[in-house]
Amino acid sequence: VTAEDRASGPIKNVQGALGGLEKGSSRVSSVMTSLGHAAEVAIGTMATAITTYGISAVQNLSREMVRLSIEQSKVQSQTKNLLKNAGMQSYSKQIEEVIGKHEEMTSLDDVSIRKSFNNLIAATKDYDRSLKLLSSAEDLAAAKGINLETATGYIVSALEGSSISLANTGVELDAVKMKSMSAAQNMDYLAKQIEKSFGGSSEALRGSTAGIFANYENQIQNLKKLFGEELTSSLSPAIEGIADKISNMISSGELQPLVDS
Question: Of the residues 179, 188, 210, 228, which has the fewest C-beta atoms closer than 10 A?
Fold first, then answer.
């Protein structure tokens, strides 16, 4: 009964994620249908692989789920710390919803979006303008076929006075004019110029075949992270207990003979 009670929350969470995945998969299914025999062969091959390599596949998946969960946790902690240091900790809950919305509107995964936001908030110390520039980075990445980290790097470099990389993507920039602007004006100017060149690109990509598959993969990754979070939260008390035991053994000198040997 206790185990069932403890599992009910994670099960409901996973069921919710599966429901979201089902909605996304309906769009993918129409694409898969158009692939005809090739899709059937691919699905058959995957089924055979799961049957043949079942145990190792589960082990690898478990490791991946934990890795994804830990990575997400690290980036989330970084976001909270950056907002706290900038005196904007009141936005900590709000940003979670915002990042979720950005993932829904684009074909980008939440970790990439969060890393981009972290880099922007660290550079600007301005919450609202960081969100504007986040959208700009997403459009730039989609339009030029580059990853979000690279697109964000171009924007941050431009804010720091080096706009060559961003200009080389096709964004029209007046470098002389930018030198006379305040930091806030520079942020607004960059967002406006990127919007002028590539506005709406990330949402357009989301509706394309490539975007549909990317979003489907994002939902798979989210599901893995959800399982990973439940797994790591279950393991953490045991791991913490082991760490405490080792610490006590070091303090008491029990491990010194082993060190000496």
Answer: 179
Query: Exposed, middle or buried: residue 113 (CB in 10 Å: 0-12, 13-18, 19+)?
Result: buried
CA-CA distance, 223 to 229, in Å (whole number)?
10
pLDDT digits (tens, 9 = 90+) for 197-229: 998 887 776 665 555 656 656 666 666 566 656
The token pair at 167 is 């200009």
- Contact between 10 and 230 under an 8 Å Cβ cutoff? The reply is yes
Contact (CB, 8 A) for 133 and 124: yes
Band of the pLDDT at 34, cuts 50, 70, 90?
Answer: very low
Residue 126: DSSP 8-state: -
Residues 155 and 140 sit within 8 Å (Cβ to Cβ):
yes
Burial (Cβ within 10 Å: 0-12, 13-18, ≥19) of residue 77: exposed
Question: Own/partner pairs for 29-35, CB < 8 Å, 24+ apart?
Answer: 31/209, 31/212, 31/213
| SS3 category, 208 | coil
Alpha-carbon dihedral angle through residues 31, 33, 35, 40, given to the nearest 10 degrees? 130
CB atoms closer than 10 angstroms to residue 165: 15
Whole-number pLDDT of residue 126? 94
Mean pLDDT of the chain: 74
Residue closest to 100 by CA, chosen among 117, 119, 85, 87: 117
| 106 contacts 138 by C-beta, under 8 angstroms | yes
Q: What is the pLDDT of residue 184?
A: 95
Q: What mean pLDDT do residues 35-40 have?
A: 51
| Runs of H (alpha helix) within 145-173 | 148-159, 164-168
Alpha-carbon span 42 to 56, nearest angstrom:
20
Both tokens of residue 15?
Answer: 């069921």
Predicted structure pTM score: 0.58
